[in-house]
Specification:
Blueprint lengths: L4 H12 L6 H38 L8 E4 L3 E9 L2 E6 L3 E5 L2 H4 L3 E2 L3 H45 L1
Antiparallel strand pairs: 1-2, 1-5, 2-3, 3-4
Length: about 160
């Protein structure tokens, strides 16, 4: 004779309907609510931090890399021939290569002779890295909040 799990589950659920929440259920509801509050506060702080980073990035300005002279360890000396957003194309003596700003200069894949330009791209890269990390933390907090809200919904559904 096969087990009928669906009927067993339905019987248990019908018995649970109308019951008052247990001490453990109340504790779990409170803990999830507390976690949501903490995550929302953290998320707000991270959004303020991100706004500060955006202002800092805006204050740095946007310098064009066009016609800049660079040196690469493998390809030698070259000139930036085009810039499309964060991508640049560099024409070396025998090849054209594409790089991503500001990392290619800040991480010294491409070397520049002007220390002011190097400092600019290093600062841009630092801000960019901080922005990416902050945005990732905000997304992570959003998903964590959603998980806690789902847990609360499941606990409340058990009480119905």
């Amino acid at each position: 004779m096969p087990l009928n799990i669906e009927n067993d589950d339905a019987a248990v659920k019908s018995e649970e309907r109308g019951k008052k929440p247990t001490k453990k259920t109340k504790e779990m509801l409170e803990e999830n609510s507390k976690q949501i509050e903490e995550l929302e506060a953290s998320q707000k702080q991270l959004e303020e931090e991100l706004a500060g980073l955006l202002k800092e990035e805006e204050a740095l300005g946007d310098k064009s890399a066009l016609k800049m002279k660079v040196t690469h360890k493998k390809y030698g000396e070259g000139t930036v021939t085009s810039q499309d957003g964060k991508y640049i194309e560099v024409k070396f003596s025998d090849v054209v290569k594409k790089f991503v700003l500001p990392g290619c200069i800040a991480d010294k894949y491409l070397e520049v002779n002007d220390d002011a330009i190097l400092d600019y791209y290093i600062k841009c890269n630092e801000i960019h890295q901080k922005k990416m990390a902050t945005e990732l933390k905000i997304k992570s907090a959003t998903y964590a909040i959603q998980r806690h809200e789902d847990a609360i919904d499941r606990l409340k559904a058990k009480l119905k």
